From TrEMBL:
CDD domains: PH_ELMO1_CED-12. InterPro entries: ARM-like (IPR011989), ARM-type_fold (IPR016024), ELMO_ARM (IPR024574), ELMO_dom (IPR006816), ELMO_domain-containing (IPR050868), PH-like_dom_sf (IPR011993), PH_domain (IPR001849). Keywords: Apoptosis, Phagocytosis, SH3-binding. Involved in cytoskeletal rearrangements required for phagocytosis of apoptotic cells and cell motility. Acts in association with DOCK1 and CRK. Was initially proposed to be required in complex with DOCK1 to activate Rac Rho small GTPases. May enhance the guanine nucleotide exchange factor (GEF) activity of DOCK1. GO terms for molecular function: SH3 domain binding. Transmembrane segments: none annotated. Residues 267-440 form the ELMO domain. This is ELMO3 protein. It holds the Pfam family ELMO_ARM. The keyword Transcription regulation does not apply. PROSITE patterns: ELMO (PS51335). One of its GO terms (biological process) is apoptotic process.
């Protein structure tokens, strides 16, 4: 347009995030994108830099509001930071003269500018940090300012141990618990986010102390009652934080799980002896002088054998295997002290059985502890995206030990139902593992409910379930049925393709995850009803299904070149940390479009969404659907279709070969000749 001083102007998207067009992103402009002519980022940065120093309150507020909005753009952020703009923001906060809306815009702008990682969090002054902390610690502060302050501290904590120490010292756990108890869900969420960030950045000893303190303050009961069972549905973000809290809490057992028993430790030997004394109290109450040392040793060995130790002369040997290490001993002692009647019944009941039919308590406890550690993922690092927590975990103190007490009694019950002998030990433990995992998958809300359900799922029920699953497999293995399966496959695969495309048309909410932390930012992607264009754009928290017109960005399906998954994706390669989080890799996929450098990167919220999206995109690209979900869906549909087709053949065995076709008759005179129809 031959404008004078062209460098003072720039193009900017009119919709969505209103990003500036630069040399690096100009190729991303899609047909149909609406652009507007505006002042260039450096001019705008200069104007706002002066505006936020204005003595006029209205000018200053408007400048800060515009700054909070524009700071999301990386080009503008670079220009503003290069003018030492952050220093002005620091001074506004440090002077503390402004409050309310002006302060909220200042903190929002600061958060957005720091998001670009141009400036290290360690450069922040002590005065600034203390001011942010004061907004969290004061009562008479606007909730939006407290939310932003909590969010800033949450970002700060993982960056350095020094900042972690400052925040931990200044923001007490009591204060965070106060914020957790408010009715404002967003404030509650940010307080939980900071609590989790502190727990993850702490050393093992600090984490243990923090968890002990939280236990004293009954945080579990509060979460169980007011967050899990509140009238509001639980959001993804909060579900993730509850999963992390559960994981951190259970991982406190890791230390004992990895520690072998030391036969020279008096404390550990006393724990072991207490098991014997609790079980055989009356027999052990004989005065020391009554038996010789040799006789006493043989009596102890006999009692340890009754307790189910393999090495009865030196039971410490059984506990040398780590995992489960000393955790198994802790569980056995907890069971004997907290449920002494059930413990005595277990031991005495098995002492009176024949040798080969007795259920070995100690051996079962050691193996059961190992099974529980594997099921509950004890000792494994927290996932960045998982949300699978057990509601009953928050309803019970000493959750792991209480769960063990229920399950060890289940072992004895299943042992009797299976009429097992010592040779069947592994089979029994396999059934017990299945009983526990099947019951946990039902997500019981309390341990009482878990106990009821797991006991109802007895050995005969497990056999029935296994039998049903086996029959499903067997009936579909006959040769004619296999041929019918192959014939039905194309039709059912087409049905799955249609379902995948319909799911893409409905769209999905995705999260943005940076290398630093789990992000709150959301974006939505959906396929147009004619399957020609992918629409996407940023959305606010709480928006479930935005209309297609509100999504400003788009990619024509014709421009899509290929689909990348897992380690091939550019956004998983960007993360420099060697220990790339496994579950993010499992959920990552990218669409390469136009020229190969341009990718749209996704991290699916769940494995289910990952499968549906990768399948749908493969269908659009004219390729085979490759996810495990396709196979599962196909098996389910084939199974249903086959059952419907074979309904009339119930209880009739299907021969492998078709019956022979009879020979044609010697003459065909029985056929009616229509040519001589009656007139």
């Amino acid at each position: 347009w031959s404008l004078p001083n062209a460098e003072r102007y720039a193009l900017q998207y009119a919709d969505g995030r209103q990003t500036y067009i630069t040399e690096s992103n100009r190729r991303d402009i899609k047909n149909g994108s609406i652009l507007r002519l505006t002042t260039s980022p450096d001019q705008e940065a200069e104007r706002l830099y002066i505006g936020i120093q204005s003595k006029n309150v209205d000018v200053k507020t408007d400048s800060l509001k515009k700054l909070a909005s524009l700071s999301q753009d990386v080009t503008f952020a670079q220009e503003f930071i290069s003018r030492n703009g952050l220093k002005q923001i620091y001074s506004i906060v440090e002077e503390g003269n402004d409050a309310g809306e002006m302060l909220a815009h200042t903190l929002k702008a600061f958060t957005e500018l720091m998001e670009h990682d141009f400036v290290s969090w360690e450069n922040l002054s002590t005065v600034f940090i203390k001011k942010i902390v004061s907004y969290v610690n004061m009562n008479a502060v606007d909730a939006s300012i407290q939310q932003l302050s909590l969010s800033i501290l949450e970002n700060m904590v993982p960056t350095s141990h020094l900042l972690f120490e400052v925040v931990k010292k200044e923001v007490t756990l009591d204060r965070l618990l106060t914020h957790l108890q408010v009715t404002n869900a967003q404030l509650q969420l940010k307080a939980m986010a900071l609590l989790i960030a502190l727990l993850l950045s702490a050393t093992e000893a600090e984490r243990r102390d923090m968890m002990d303190y939280l236990r004293e303050k009954n945080i579990r009961q509060f979460i169980h009652k007011n967050i899990i069972h509140s009238s509001e549905p639980l959001g993804d973000e909060m579900a993730h934080y509850l999963y992390v809290l559960q994981s951190v809490s259970l991982n406190l057992c890791e230390h004992r799980m990895k520690m072998s028993m030391d036969p020279y430790s008096q404390e550990q030997r006393d724990l072991l002896q207490s098991l014997r004394q609790t079980a055989f109290e009356s027999e052990s109450d004989v005065p020391a002088g009554t038996f010789s040392t040799e006789r006493r040793r043989s009596l102890c060995a006999k009692e340890f054998r009754k307790l189910g130790f393999v090495n009865n002369s030196n039971p410490a040997e059984d506990l040398r295997r780590a995992p489960p290490g000393l955790l198994a001993l802790d569980n056995m002692v907890y069971f004997s002290r907290n449920t002494p009647n059930a413990y005595s019944r277990f031991i005495l009941e098995n002492s009176s059985r024949e040798d080969k039919h007795e259920c070995p308590f100690a051996r079962s406890s050691i193996q059961l502890t190992l099974i529980l550690c594997e099921i509950l993922h004890i000792g494994e690092p927290c996932s960045e995206t998982a949300q699978a927590f057990y509601p009953m975990f928050f309803g019970q103190d000493h959750f792991f030990e209480e769960l063990f007490c229920i399950c060890i009694q289940l072992v004895n019950k299943t042992w009797k139902e299976m009429r097992a002998t010592q040779e069947d030990f592994d089979k029994v433990m396999q059934v017990v593992r299945e009983q526990i995992t099947r019951t946990l998958s039902l997500k019981p809300t309390s341990l009482e409910l878990f106990k009821t359900r797991v006991n109802a799922l007895n050995y005969s029920e497990i056999l029935k379930l296994r039998q049903t699953e086996r029959l499903h497999q067997e009936e579909t293995l006959a040769v004619p049925v296999l041929a019918l399966r192959e014939k039905l496959k194309p039709e059912l695969l087409e049905l799955i393709r249609q379902q995948r495309l319909l799911h893409l048309c409905e769209g999905t909410l995705f999260r943005k995850i940076s290398s630093r932390r789990r992000q709150d930012k959301l974006w939505y992607c959906r396929l147009s009803p004619n399957h020609k264009v992918l629409h996407y754009g940023d959305v606010e928290e709480g928006v479930q299904s935005p209309p297609i017109e509100s999504l400003s960005e788009k990619i024509p399906v014709a421009d899509m070149k290929m689909l990348l998954v897992g380690k091939e994706c550019p956004h998983t390669k960007e993360k420099s940390s060697g220990k790339q989080n496994k579950d993010v890799l499992e959920l990552a996929f990218s669409i390469v479009h136009d020229v190969e450098e341009y990718c749209l990167n996704f991290i699916a919220p769940t494995r289910y969404e990952f499968c549906l999206w990768t399948d749908g995109l493969n269908v659009l690209l004219g390729r085979e659907m490759t996810s495990e979900r396709t196979q599962t869906d196909l098996d389910v549909l084939l199974s249903m279709e086959l059952k419907l087709r074979l309904l009339d053949l119930e209880n009739i065995s299907i021969p492998d070969d078709p019956p022979p076709i009879p020979k044609p008759p010697s003459n065909l005179n029985f056929c009616y000749d229509f040519s001589h129809a009656e007139q």
